[in-house]
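ping. complex inputs:
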Amino acid sequence: MPGTRRLSMTSFAVAIEPAGQPRLAAMAFLAHVAAAVSPWLTGTAPLLAAPLSFLAIAGLLATLGHVPGRHCRLLALAIDGRGCRVRLADRPRWLQAKLGAGARAYASLVVLEAVVAGRRFGWLLPRAALPPDEFRRLKARIRLSC
Amino acid sequence: MKELDVLLLGWLEHRWAEADESRRRSFQWLLEQPDPDLADWLIGGSRPPDAGHAALVDDIVCRRD
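pong. complex structure:
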């Protein structure tokens, strides 16, 4: 149907189950630890340094929860004629989901957000996390969904 | 290849909305093709055998030029 950016559910089939991304996790870890430590190294007053460090550590946990690997609850995503489905770490079955509004596709990074029964799960996917054609189809799907 | 992404997703951004159904189907077919074939068509100057697919490749390449 010309005039709409939405896709039919039968197009751009995507099925991804990214491998763990230890390099991305390590980079996130180092960046957040540096952020947590820096207030103390720069002589910031403890009353300010403590909440800043707390925010950095909370940010680290949230970020690691989105990096494919053992900290991430989202294991696999499939988008095809049956809609969008995900598999979570603690559930044996595929669950119906939808792409969240927070999903973004950049040149070498996809920020994926899937909503399952009102709860949000996500991935940070660098280009190396997926085969090139799968990464391209995922980006196309997200760009048309936004 | 990043250049393939730029070409294909650029077309998607700018031409998808006004594309007819057959052109959209061609684009979906193109997205399923392996990178070496896409590179031959979009960068190397060859064309896929199907006329509809070839017309889409022409359109994508024209946007780049």
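The CA atoms of residues 99 and 114 of chain A lie 5 Å apart.
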